[in-house]
Structure prediction request, 449 residues.
Amino acid sequence: MPIKILTAITALALTAAPLPAGEPNAAATRWQPRLERIQACLDKEIASLEKLYYHLHSHPELAFQEVQTSARMATELSQLGFEVTTKVGGHGVVGVFKNGPGPTVMVRADMDALPITESTGLPYASKVRTRDKEGNDVGVMHACGHDMHMTSWTGTARTLIALKNHWQGTLVFIGQPAEEVGGGARRMIDDGLFKRFPRPDYCLGLHCAPNLPHGHIGYSEGLLLGNVDTVDITVKGVGGHGSAPHLTVDPIVIAARIVLDLQTLVSRERNPQDPAVVTVGSIHGGTKHNIIPSEVKLQLTVRSFKDEVRQGLLEGIQRITKAAALAAKAPEPIIRIEIDDWCPALYNTPELAKKTATLFKNVLGKDNIHEVPPIMGGEDFSRYGRAGVPIFFYFLGTADPAKHAAWKKGGPALPGMHSEFYYPIPQPTIRAGVTSMSVAVLNLLKTVD
Ligand code: ZN
Ligand code: ZN
Prediction:
């Protein structure tokens, strides 16, 4: 019965949005028994998954410090019968579950949190403080939803193992460290992720989206996120007394010129069709009114979509900085581009993205699935695609639908990613995360109904 099917599907996605529009289709009918099995599994697991989510949220760890988190993820997979390897590329976890001949599908969750003091006021808010790598005392918070990614990943693993008589193939579940600093995926690949373990035919991942209501999904069939580079510049000068500038080379003036000249990299040197961002996020120099310092430090984030644009920006930053120093007869500046932690632009593999998004529309309701334009954020999930594996990465809505609707009507903005106030609505987001990822994986495995 059409209405019954639609009702069941909407309940699975647990969206507060209206029922999906349109007639049910052949795919929805075919998938209904699978969805019902997933639903039954989730009903059994949801209380425990919610508990896991609260635990992860209140015990966040910074990038490269994910000791307890990775141990917990390893235990979750071991208990399900995965063959688990730890310490892959740092605190990375790889679980392999072989279930007969068929495709190999990798599912990735990232595990690290951010140096942010949580201000949500939630009963399960993080009170954790730690030292960052510079030795500063910082609050720690899952302000990017990686706790939700891990919970959905765990729920998907539990669901797929419970349904193992209904599919064949190999699952590779990875817990990736250090996403926030852009180094975790590269380290796992360098440590043999695609050599020591079955090489995946497909790789799937999701990310919380603060600007979508829970039960909704955002996706792209190609470009989704940008290249992210970080650049550190030390502008050198010759220090001295503020009253005698003629005896100095003032690095503050040179740095100020550099900051303005850098703006022309985007406004004058780029094709307007090629988006790019050069942001000077930090500038530090000097100690007192009447002292001309001997150096000024700048920290930049550089964003682009195309690799040639990225190269042009990095070359231009060096050119402009050196030229400003030369013009002022200043010593050679130091320019450090963190090539290792470059986070490449994320391109979803079009066929895989189309196949999965079509499934989502058919079985989760097309009104809940939105094609979204690319944004200049970065995610090192892109590296799995650069390593030659077809990838699909999608956004999972986490917002309270009422607050989302109020915001759309001009009300208060919703806290974004990395905000001290950000949090997903736990239970419906977990349900939508597990349901969407489980159907996405099943759609790629050999199904046995
Ligand atoms: Zn983040
Ligand atoms: Zn993130």
Confidence is low (pLDDT under 50) at residues 1-21. The domain at 11-225+344-447 is CATH 3.40.630.10 (Aminopeptidase). The longest helix spans residues 26-58.
